[in-house]
Specification:
Layout (H helix, E strand, L loop, with lengths): L4 E7 L2 H11 L8 E7 L18 E7 L10 H19 L3 E4 L3 E4 L2 E13 L2 E11 L16 H5 L5 H20 L3 H10 L7 E6 L2 E10 L5 E5 L2 E5 L5 E3 L1
Parallel strand pairs: 1-2
Antiparallel strand pairs: 2-3, 3-7, 4-5, 5-6, 6-7, 8-9, 8-12, 9-10, 10-11
Helix pairs in contact: 2-4, 2-5
InterPro entries: aa-tRNA-synth_II/BPL/LPL, Biotin_CoA_COase_ligase, BPL_LPL_catalytic
Keywords: Ligase
Protein name: Biotin--[acetyl-CoA-carboxylase] ligase
């Protein structure tokens, strides 16, 4: 992963760029990374936009062809990528680093980054996956309306080399990807769960306009979040639950 690296000065979204490459031209090698200094239409989850100051942050997309992952288990890919990013940053942040379900990277209660994974399914099988990752690295200030974004620089008061972090992330993603490929899925699932933000803590959530107190107890194989709520277990998808601070 990351051997074939394309760097762009400016693009709408690296995810869009990579998806266009796939649909237009000759085959794109697995592991290709498209990195941009800036995006003018970066996309986040839940139809959000992704803002990042030009040249200061990591915004890139990588291509995997996870044909060996059954569609019903595609959340394993989310685990692979989250753990890869996590491992690349952990030497810098240690225990303060967590994975906020499903795939945000948190330091304490600030969001360092996130990912947008777009899977292409063909004939009932995963064919390719465009994995977009955005990480706040050297940005100093975030607008007032970006609620809880934080950068490595704000936390550690140093500048970081973007290429260096990128290459760490790529190597670790490859490690976990190969674990899944070799059938070591339990290892990946257990590790992902152990890294979760708010795991086993009594916290406030919102679902369908109802606030409630509950405790995250696990993530199902298919990626649903299981929260214990007044003694019963409820499962939620991304659109059904919100974390309240
Ligand atoms: C989120 O937390 O909502 C996901 C953010 C994903 C942002 C990255 S930046 C590189 C890639 N290109 C995009 O348009 N989005 C992803």
């Amino acid at each position: 992963v990351g051997q074939n690296l394309v760097t762009l000065k400016e693009v709408d979204s690296t995810n869009n760029f990579l998806k266009n490459l796939l649909s237009n031209s000759k085959p794109v090698p697995e592991g290709t990374v498209i990195m941009a200094e800036s995006q003018y239409a970066g996309r986040g989850q839940r139809d959000n936009v992704w803002h990042a100051e030009a040249g200061k942050n990591l915004t890139f997309s990588l291509l995997l062809n996870p044909v060996f992952i059954p569609v019903a288990q595609q959340f394993d890919l989310t685990r692979v990528v989250s753990l890869g990013v996590f491992d690349a940053l952990q030497p810098l942040l240690g225990d303060r680093l967590k994975i906020k379900w499903p795939n945000d990277i948190y330091c304490d209660s600030g969001k360092l980054g996130g990912m947008l994974i777009e899977n292409m399914i063909q004939g009932g099988q995963l064919k390719s996956s465009v994995i977009g990752i955005g990480l706040n690295i050297n940005q100093q200030n975030f607008g007032e309306n970006t609620t809880n974004a934080v950068s490595l620089k704000q936390i550690l008061h140093k500048d970081y080399d973007l290429r260096n972090i990128l290459s760490q992330i790529c190597s670790y993603i490859e490690v976990y990807y190969l674990h899944v490929k070799a059938g070591r899925i339990d290892l990946v699932r257990d590790l992902y769960q152990s890294r979760l933000y708010w795991l086993n803590e009594v916290r406030d959530f919102r679902s369908n306009d109802n606030k409630f107190t509950g405790k995250i107890i696990r993530v199902m194989d298919n990626g649903l979040l299981v929260v214990e709520r007044e003694g019963t277990e409820e499962s939620y998808n991304l659109k059904e639950i919100e974390f309240l601070n």
